[in-house]
Structure formats: C-alpha cells, structure tokens
Design goal:
globular, 43% helix
Length: 210
C-alpha cells in the first residue's frame, strides 16, 4: 500500500502540475478514439505499451479479456461497449489477450474451480475458443497455452461482433474491431488477421492496412 501512497504523492506534487493544462481540457469531456478491452492482469499496462495519455483510450478490463456474447450477460462489459460505441463513438475496439494468462491456464490445466463459482461461470465464456484451434489441440502444454490464448482473442473478437451496436457501427463503416496478443517477455504485439485466420506482427498488420 505504501508504494501506492508514495506514487500518489509523486503524481500530485510532480506529475500533475506539469500536465495541468491537459487535465483542464479533460476535466469535463473525453473523446477517446478507441475502446481497449484487455485482461485484468497487473503486467498488462495499456498506457505503457501504447504510450497513451489521459483521454486517449477508453479501457475495459476483465479476467481473461472476456466479452460475453450479446444477450448472455447484461453486465459491465456489455454496458461499457454500448457506451463506447453509442456515446463516445469510438472508431476502434481492440480485444487484447496476453502471454502467461491465468484465466487461460485455469482452463488448460483443468484447475478445480469449485471454490470459485463466479470465476468458473465467467471462464465458461472462454470455452468457444477451443473451436478456433485450427491446427488441432497441441500436446505440448506450453504450446497449447499460447495457442488457446490466441484462440480466445478470436473467440472474444467474435463475441464482440454479436453486440448490436457494434454490428451496426461495423456495417456503417464507423468502427473497426481488432484482436491483439501481447507478449510480456518480448513486449511485442501480434494482430489477428481475420482473412488469413492467423496472428501477424502488429507492425506488419499496420503496413498491410496502409
Ligand atoms: Zn490474463
């Protein structure tokens, strides 16, 4: 806790005064260009990875970067997506998974979740990911872990597209959706290419889109 309090003191006394003009502009409005949906994992820090500033991205974090399909859970994730699309009119939604994801490990290791009924129910939304393992189920547990993380990004990307406001904005070409994978060890991001059904380095994906 002391680390948090020391951090706040530094922010209040050193960082905030340097950026007070920015915060004055942001005090009563926001216009983020993207909704970034990622895992709650402490090692995934969107503002660090993307070098974004206050006001740049609208963020939604859930265990396993899960997006329940439309109609299956009218919870915080669905409301956040609806608000981002209908009110903030974001141009992009990114679903970002990451290496060494505990939510995926719970599935691949078949952990006993009987003491965690809410977690067990929530992680049930990962199950559709199995069908996106195009090359079958790898026998090596580490390979399976990484493959299922990628497959889960695709599954949640597909769930995202079932939300009516997302589907509408996509149809009107007001929105683009993206599936990303972030590697904690290397800092590299891969992007899902829905046509090729594979992940490619983000730099390559951006170059192809230009
Ligand atoms: Zn995770």
């Amino acid at each position: 806790m002391q680390k948090l309090l020391d951090g706040y003191a530094k922010f209040r006394n050193q960082v905030f005064p340097q950026q007070k003009d920015r915060f004055r502009l942001l005090a009563d409005r926001q216009a983020p260009d993207a909704l970034f949906i990622t895992c709650s994992d402490s090692r995934v820090v969107p503002d660090l990875i993307l070098q974004t500033e206050p006001g740049d991205i609208f963020v939604c974090r859930t265990a396993g970067n899960i997006v329940p399909p439309h109609g299956q859970m009218a919870g915080g994730v669905s409301a956040t997506i609806e608000y981002a699309v209908e009110v903030l009119a974001v141009s992009h939604i990114i679903v970002c998974g990451h290496s060494d994801c505990g939510a995926i490990k719970a599935i691949t290791d078949r952990r006993d979740l009987s003491r965690l009924p809410l977690t067990a129910k929530w992680l049930g939304f990962i199950e559709p990911a199995w069908k996106f393992l195009d090359a079958g189920i790898p026998s090596d547990p580490r390979v399976l872990h990484t493959a299922l993380i990628h497959a889960n990004v695709i599954a949640q990307y597909e769930h995202l597209r079932t939300h009516p406001e997302v589907a509408r904005a996509l149809a009107h070409k007001k929105l683009q959706v993206h599936g990303w994978y972030y590697d904690i060890l290397t800092g590299a991001i891969e992007a899902y290419d829905p046509e090729e059904r594979k992940f490619i380095p983000l730099e390559q994906s951006i170059a192809a889109a230009r």
